[in-house]
Amino acid sequence: MSTPDLLYTEAEEDLRAAVRSLLTDHCPPAAVLSRAESGRAYDGALWRALGADMGAAGLLVPDKLGGQGATAREAAVVMEELGRAVAPVPYLTSAVLAVGALLGCDTGQDAVARLLGALAEGRTVGALAVPLSTAPGAPGAPGATVRADGDGALSGQVSGVAGAAGADVLLVPAAGADGYGLYAVETAETSVSVEPLTSLDLTRPLAAVTLTGAPARRLAGDDRAGAAIGRALLTGAGLLASEQLGVAEWCLTETVRHTKERHQFGRPVGSFQALKHRMATLWLELVQARATARYAADALATDSPDTPVAVAVAQAHCAQVAVHAAEECVQLHGGIGMTWEHPAHLYLKRAKSDEIALGTPGRHRQTLAGLVDLAAPTG
């Protein structure tokens, strides 16, 4: 087994610079705040620039299928930068979860290959129709709340789906006479209803999807559908750790900057020992979070047998680091940190919603205990 490589390559740093430059120009905090109040699902112009023009939507798609042929390491760099900007784009939901599910299907099928190519171009947006809280690692496939009729039409409801609002195609797990399967449904169909839900994180909205005899294409059957969805969830959870790392990095950087500039009693508040200790603690947590997130990304990229362990460790740690960093950012900014005008609340909401996305830290610790054969305490 190869030794994990936690360092960033020159190509990855170049990708980071390009994505950060784009987000700096097109996704400043003021624009994110304005977008959060608009009720629109995501920033379409930013997604076109990032997903289509820059090619980020196809990073995980092999070049023979119209993608960039990159790996989870490059996708993790993009996720870091999107976390730093709390960017309202469907990268996780379309370019990671939906693409990941399709890659687990038979890509030799024309329907699968065409859909992968469309998502890789970034001009079609997809979403995996499972609740965002669904964790990887559970035995068997995620339970289906949608029923497939004999003629391939789907009926049922799935709630808490991230990325459904604004998606062009939904990948829906369903059970029927032919068993469990993964189906593609166009959201333009009149038999498809996508009802936005009130979510904590307005930059990643949730929706309830209702299907009433919706026409669908079967992409994978019992033999592959469950494994494809499971792998997509595992990839999503592993890369979500990099987004959480980006959230924590912004929070610490912004807090250090503010405490250097904010003066009380004739000196910067950042020079007070108690505050220095709190920020030093955050920095140590951040270093640890970067190591676990990079390990998860590298394991996914190399298809390491340790991937489930790496993802569980990364999620159990990074989720809590992001929340702690965001809470400290709000508190150490004082009164301004409590206002709607300051972007700190966006990072706290993203961190808190990410904490329960694709499994809570407790759920991942439970998974990790099973993977390393560590019995739970009794009594």
General description of the model:
It is built from eleven helices and ten strands. It is an alpha+beta fold and 379 residues long. α1 (10-26) packs parallel to α4. The protein is globular and about 75 Å long.
Q: In percent terms, what proportion of residues is strand? A: 5-15%
Question: What is the quaternary state of this protein?
Answer: single chain
Q: Which outline best applies?
A: globular
How much helix, percentage-wise, in residues? 40-55%
Question: Biggest β-sheet: count, sense, barrel?
Answer: 8 strands, mixed
Mean pLDDT score: 89
SSE ordering: HHHHHHEEEEEEEEHEEHHHH
Tally of DSSP β-strands: 10
Low-pLDDT ranges: none
Through-space gap between termini:
39 Å
* Rounded Rg: 21 Å
Count of helical regions = 11
What structural class results from the helix and strand content? alpha+beta
Tags for this entry?
two-stranded antiparallel ribbon, alpha+beta, 379 residues, globular
Give the SSE layout.
Elements: H1 10-26, H2 29-38, H3 44-53, H4 72-85, H5 91-103, H6 110-121, E1 126-128, E2 146-148, E3 154-162, E4 169-176, E5 179-186, E6 192-196, E7 206-214, E8 217-220, H7 222-261, E9 263-264, E10 267-268, H8 273-302, H9 307-332, H10 344-356, H11 361-371
